[in-house]
From TrEMBL:
InterPro entries: BHMT-like, HCY_dom, HCY_dom_sf. Binds 1 zinc ion per subunit. Signal peptide: none annotated. This is Homocysteine S-methyltransferase. It comes from Rhizobium leguminosarum. Residues 1-300 form the Hcy-binding domain. It comes from the Bacteria. Zn(2+) binds at residues 209, 285-286. Keywords: Metal-binding, Methyltransferase, Transferase, Zinc. It holds the Pfam family S-methyl_trans. Its EC number is 2.1.1.10.
Length: 302
């Protein structure tokens, strides 16, 4: 039995593969509007591939994607639908317990730490939390670019009584990879983010939506901080498969090309490296599909 908890992978390309229409600005939210059955099917495919935690398709249910008017008029219903579809898929699993993580995205855009608005963020997070709460087992603040976004998620979920995980995205241009020192996309250090996590009450501290090559260094740094603080916080990784440098563009500007060299075997080798460094929660982000998840789960279990 693997001691690593297996997450799901990226939702968008699996939706496309099964025939859903995705276009900007709505992106994966468009599948909830037009083809919710396909959303449920993607969840089921990840479960069949071995995922022990699946994530609600609520990442794009923010004004950044669906617009302020639609968020105010339809946001709550769409958020509830995203939660219900994930819950139904998880509860249909007969061979094991599958947990549902409620995705709480960066409200003002991915890879956009400069756009964070502390005076407004809770207005939007509150809608997500209230409408996902009946369906989720844990909260997942994901693709966060600065520590303040993590603190906003902590504050938003505090009254729910449910555990929360925080996942930061890392700077991953070639210079960042060559430097060997992982930083958040805000420029804040992983060490500072991990130190914040120690005092936050988070059950898990993760890194996502960055190239696989930057993840091991971040895991090693987090593990060191947690050892020194005697903190029992799990560490996780779910990398993306984006091609080229991402620092000059937002994660959700369009459909990024994905790497030809990052097949399921190559990704599973990265996953083994992260596990060796101390990660106990591993999955995939954009461009990492059910086949990748199946392979990494089998590899890690060995």
């Amino acid at each position: 039995m693997s001691t690593t908890r297996i997450l799901d992978g990226g939702m968008s390309r699996e939706l496309l593969r099964l025939g859903a229409e995705l276009k900007q600005p709505e992106w994966s939210a468009l599948a909830l509007i037009n083809s919710p059955d396909i959303v449920r099917e993607v969840h089921k495919e990840f479960i069949a591939a071995g995922s022990e935690v699946i994530t609600t398709n609520s990442y794009a249910l923010v004004p950044f994607h669906i617009g302020e008017d639609r968020f105010q008029n339809e946001g709550a219903a769409l958020i509830r639908l995203a939660g219900r579809l994930a819950r139904e898929a998880a509860d249909a699993a007969t061979d094991r317990k599958v947990l549902v993580a409620g995705s709480l995205p960066p409200i003002f855009g991915s890879y956009e730490p400069q756009n964070f608005q502390p005076s407004r963020v809770q207005d939007y997070l509150k809608v997500l939390v209230e409408n996902l709460a009946p369906f989720v087992d844990i909260w997942l603040g994901e693709t966060l670019s600065l520590i303040a976004e993590g603190e906003a998620v902590r504050e938003a979920v505090a009254a729910t009584g449910k555990p929360f995980w925080i996942s930061f995205t890392l700077a991953d241009d070639e210079a960042d990879i060559d430097s060997g020192e992982a930083t958040l996309r805000s420029g804040e250090s992983v060490e500072d983010a991990a130190s914040w996590a120690v005092s936050s009450g988070a059950e898990a501290f993760l890194f996502n939506c960055s190239k696989p090559e930057v993840m091991r260094g971040a895991v090693e740094t987090a593990a060191r901080v947690f050892r020194q603080a005697d903190a029992r916080i799990e560490i996780g990784v779910y990398a993306n498969a984006f091609e080229g440098e991402q620092g000059a563009s937002a994660a959700n500007e369009g459909l990024h090309d994905t790497r030809d060299d990052l097949n399921d075997d190559a990704y599973s080798r990265f996953a083994c490296s992260w596990a060796e460094a101390g990660a106990t929660i591993i999955g995939g982000c954009c461009g990492i599909g059910a086949a990748h998840i199946h392979r990494l789960g089998k590899t890690l279990s060995r």
